[in-house]
Amino acid sequence: MLLIMKRILLLALFFIVTGVSAQINLNIGSSNVGVAPVSSFFSYSYVQQIYPKQELNANADGNITGLTFYIDPSSTIIESSNWTVYLGHTSKTSFSSGTDWIPAAQLTQVFTGAVTKNNNKVDVVFTTPFSYNNVDNLVVAAKENSPNIDINNFDEAFHVYPHVPYSTLYYKGDRGVVDIASPPGGIRADYKSSVTISGLTPSASPACPFVVYPVNNAQNISLTPNFSWLPVSGATSYKISLGTSSGSTDIINQQTVSGNSFSPANALVAGTTYYLKVTSVSGSLQSSGCSEFIFKTVPPIPVNDACTGALPASIFPYTYTQNDAVSTTNNTGNISVCTSNGDTGMNDGTWFKLTGDGAQYTIKVTMPSGSSFDPQIGVYSGSCSNLSCTGTVDDGGGGTAETLTITSVSGTDYFINVGAYDDATDAPENIFTITITKL
Fold first, then answer.
1. Where are the alpha helices (DSSP H) in 245-360?
2. Is the pLDDT assigned to residue 10 strictly greater than 50?
């Protein structure tokens, strides 16, 4: 009999422990407030939030049985307690605009009714569990249907934490209860509700961090980058690995970092492809299966960075695409020889050279589609140590082509500078194509 009672007790303890562990806590210690899961400061609200699979870090698919949201101790929600809650799956990680709502057809209503604040929490227990597939990202949507508002010290009542940009989309106003089939335009936010998700069991190891910088396949990364990532709930530290081939750690090998950013002690090599991995650590456990981020550093300094290294143009039409202009140095500072459109100079960009023969030459600079680079053309005679203004042009804005025509003097050398229009600061150059045509 005693043996049977012991077995029953052990079984009961097993279910208690299992029930407690079958929940995922996401940043429940945050003290910031925001408009999620609902607004307490406006009559009506509708909020959609995206929790990526990577962040949930569940060990398997399962049934979500409820959500717990956290309220600032000084706040009330007496007039903001009539909720309807929906869950859904999505491949999105963020909202692209204020109207990029996840359609109602992709959502399942899991709760409707009154909620209450209890020990600075709101527990939403679902009538029917929601089956989460652990493949897609999770959508948590809630609308508040009461016509009145709560006046709180911080306006909004619920705790939120910063995360993936535009991972929340909300509407708050006084028009009336929102029809989720055709919600009004909303506002995007870079935060989400601190939340406990009941029914899912977290993986034993912590979640992989979301790397913010650099983005995967980024180009022209600084030689002294500051890698950054979003904090992982429950992580006590992070490990950084960096190599020059996939999976390698020849530059940095599992270096422990306490915060959520890191700069290598030594400058990286120009024009080199690197492979970055960031993992999180909780106790003795480290996240696994984290993605590798590939990036390439800025190219070496261009050969025509200085006037003395100007590329000669002798066969016309002459065309050259400058792919490495991002690494120009501005040398000894801005050039203040010519004046254009009120500017007293321009950046020292990259240089080209032609020898006059009495003919006219048209110099045109164009940029790739989508470029924001704003170039200026400066043409000078004389010598690199004693430039004399022949002409300059800066008629357009970012991404706009510039054209300048000069009449050459036979035997005179002309130095052509293509740099950023700014006459005061060292503005960056970018990819452009120069074409020189003899008329």
1. none
2. no
pLDDT digits (tens, 9 = 90+) for 303-323: 999 999 999 999 999 999 999
Q: How far apart are CA 237 and CA 402, in angstroms?
A: 51
For 96, residues 6+ apart whose C-beta sits below 8 A from its C-beta are 166
The rounded distance, in Å, linking the Cα atoms of 305 and 426 is: 14
Q: Are 397 and 355 in contact (CB under 8 A)?
A: no
Is 146 in contact with 31 (CB distance < 8 Å)?
Answer: no
- Cβ–Cβ < 8 Å for 439, 405: yes
**Under 8 Å CB-to-CB from 89, ≥6 apart: which residues?**
106, 132, 133, 135, 136, 137, 138, 139
Work out whether the CA dihedral 124, 128, 134, 136 comes out positive or negative. negative
Burial class, 94, CB count within 10 angstroms (exposed 0-12 / middle 13-18 / buried 19+): middle
Average pLDDT over the chain, rounded to an integer: 92
Task: Tell me the CA distances in angstroms from 304 to 19, 172, 326, 358, 402, one per residue in order.
Answer: 68, 56, 12, 25, 20
Element holding 2 (H helix, E strand): helix 2-21
* Nearest-5° Cα angle at 130, 128 to 135: 170
d(CA 39, CA 142): 10
Q: Span 236-241, mean pLDDT?
A: 97
Task: State the SS3 of 41-94.
Answer: CCCEEEEEEEECHHHHCECCCEEEEEEEEEECCCCCCCCCCEEEEEEEEECCCC
Pairing of strands 23-26, 195-198: antiparallel
Question: Is the pLDDT score of 422 beyond 50?
Answer: yes
Task: Please state the three-class secondary structure of 3-26 as a single string.
Answer: HHHHHHHHHHHHHHHHHHHCEEEE
pLDDT at 344 (0 to 100) = 75
For CA atoms 223, 224, 230, 234, give the dihedral sign: positive
Distances (CA, A) of 197 to 21, 90, 111, 123, 142: 11, 17, 14, 10, 15
